[in-house]
Amino acid sequence: MSEKQAKGSAHDADSLEALIERARHHVMTPAERRDQMVSFVYGMLDSKDTRSKDDIRATLAKHYGWD
Q1: Residue 67, CB half-sphere, CA atoms under 13 Å: how many?
Q2: Which of 17, 46, 51, 66 could cysteine-pair with 61, CB 3.0–4.6 Å?
Q3: pTM of the predicted model as reported, rounded to 2 decimal places
Q4: What angle do CA 21, 33, 59 make, to 5 degrees?
């Protein structure tokens, strides 16, 4: 490993640690929670299911009374 690669790896590790620390203290907004729920439900669908993320979002919005 070259010196430049070693410095890059150390910098990347420092950046990763900083990002992890920021994420650790992040409080999700209601919009982020909704997006996370849509993504989760969409990901849990059977591969043969033809619904789109927009379909899932509309169904969840109706069920939960989202705007």
Answers
A1: 3
A2: 66
A3: 0.69
A4: 160
